[in-house]
Amino acid sequence: MFGSLLILLAMPLLDLSRVRGSAFRPLMKFFFWLLVVDFLILLWCGSQHVEEPFITLGQFATTFYFSWFLIIVPVVSVIENTLIDLATENKS
């Protein structure tokens, strides 16, 4: 449980995008809303009895939570940086 809070400290190192903020990053906006839904699923699973469908759903939601920080954010940042570079090369 402490790891879910410690992972937030790594965010400045994991976000590789040159654009700070999500206002001009449509792909990151989509994945942010997936994180919000995942957070709500984790809240709901935590309030349920410890039974089989909730255990499995909670494990999948926890895996997505950590993969969002460790995998999705850096990959989306690299993809968006590449798309920005391609867009600016064509205009030159």
How would you characterize this protein structure?
The protein is mainly alpha-helical. The chain has a domain at 25-87. It has 4 helices and no strands. It has helices at 2-6, 11-14, 26-46, 52-91. Helix 3 (26-46) packs antiparallel against helix 4 (52-91).
Write the layout of secondary structure elements.
Elements: H1 2-6, H2 11-14, H3 26-46, H4 52-91
Helix pairs in contact: 3-4
Largest sheet: none
Average per-residue pLDDT, rounded, comes to: 91
Estimated helix fraction: over 70%
Unreliable parts = none
Q: What is the total tally of β strands? A: 0
Order of helices and strands: HHHH
Question: Percent of residues in beta strands?
Answer: under 5%
